[in-house]
Specification:
- The protein is α+β, with helices and mostly antiparallel strands.
- The chain folds into 2 domains: 4-86, Arc Repressor Mutant, subunit A; 92-201.
- Helix content is 56%, strand content 14%.
- It contains 9 helices and 4 strands; from the N terminus they run βααααβββααααα.
- The strands form 2 sheets. A two-stranded parallel ribbon has the order 1-4. It has a two-stranded antiparallel sheet with strand order 2-3.
- Strand 2 (64-72) and strand 3 form a beta hairpin.
- Helix 7 packs antiparallel against helix 8 (158-172).
- The longest helix is centred in the C-terminal third of the chain and has 20 residues, at 175-194.
- It is globular and about 65 Å long.
């Protein structure tokens, strides 16, 4: 079974799964090599039962797959592998649970800015506003048919697919959509700059 280099994730439930650190670590390991639940559990210093719980959810979401099965005495040992090297999140129109998950991830990202020397004061109202801007940016010029075609290209690497998707979306925008896109980008920068702590503004 060949791992896809790139997979677009649009299912809200699948996106929420990536909000959990353990599941992200499982996917990271299974991108590098196929492994059994016991092997993953040993690597992450967790119980096989805990790993199985996460693996079951990731399987259902299509983010990992059974690579092969091997008989060991009286039972079948399953080896798992990530279904893609890179998962690209495509927000599109969001439901309530998906919006909450997106805001939570965004909040975590913004609160990580001080780790790289950008000191901000993060307020929930600001996170919600920026999340709404991101949501709108995600649907401007959206072409599901083109995204699917791009994700299935086998002779283009991840970076190339990212660039191709960006160009396709820009070309697909109407003039009014492009003007709105530029305005939203400016608004997002304004909101982000407004969160800088007083010391950072000097």
């Amino acid at each position: 079974m060949t791992m896809k280099p790139f997979k677009v994730v649009t299912d809200p439930a699948a996106m929420e799964l990536l909000g959990d650190e353990t599941r992200r670590r499982i996917i990271y390991l299974l991108r590098a090599r196929e492994s059994t639940i016991s092997q993953v559990a040993e690597e992450l210093k967790l119980t096989p039962q805990a790993i199985y719980h996460h693996v079951k959810k990731l399987l259902k979401a299509g983010m990992i797959e059974v690579e092969r099965e091997e008989r060991v005495e009286n039972f079948i040992e399953k080896y798992y592998r990530a279904s893609a090297e890179v998962f690209e999140l495509s927000w599109g129109a969001q439901g309530k649970s998906q919006t909450m998950a997106a805001e939570h991830r965004l909040g975590e990202t913004l609160r990580s800015l001080p780790k790289i020397g950008i000191h901000v004061e993060v307020e929930d109202s600001k996170v919600s506003k920026i999340s709404r801007i991101q949501n709108r940016l995600g649907v401007l010029g959206e072409r599901k048919d083109l995204e699917e075609k791009i994700s299935n290209l086998s002779d283009v690497d991840f970076v190339g697919k990212q660039e191709l998707a960006s160009m396709a979306r820009m070309i697909s925008m109407t003039e009014s959509q492009f003007q709105e896109w530029m305005g939203l980008q400016k608004n997002m920068r304004t909101e982000l700059k407004s969160m800088l702590s007083p010391n950072s503004k000097r």
